[in-house]
Specification:
CATH architecture: 3-Layer(aba) Sandwich
Distance between the termini: 23 Å
Number of domains: 1
Number of helices: 2
Helix content: 10-25%
Structural class: alpha+beta
Strand content: 15-25%
Strand order of the largest sheet: 2-1-3-4-5-6
Shape: globular
Bound molecules: FE2/S2 (inorganic) cluster
Number of strands: 6
Amino acid sequence: MPIFERHVFICENFREKGHPRGSCGDKGGEQIRELFKQSLEKRGLKGRMRANKAGCLDQCEIGPTVVIYPEGVWYGLVRTAADVEEIIEQHLLGGKVVERLAFSRDASGKLVRGNAG
Ligand code: FES
């Protein structure tokens, strides 16, 4: 049995101002991780599911970037408390991907909206 049913990694990386790829830290990654953490605790999910801070996940253009395991589903542009609540309710608890915030790569490696997996 896995230690956590679902494990959420949220990028909080900062880059120097003006970097062409931007960074999740500049777009509120730390606050997003805090919102995940607080909501999981409030819902009594602490111990079953965990939100951890991550360094750069190399998907900076769509930051703040979030990835959830074991599914390996990627989310981008996660910017509000409502986004966090939707991911917790629909994905973490309901097992259903939040398509409007999901990202994947097409055959050419280009980032595209939606979960290809
Ligand atoms: S800075 Fe967050 S994915 Fe690169």
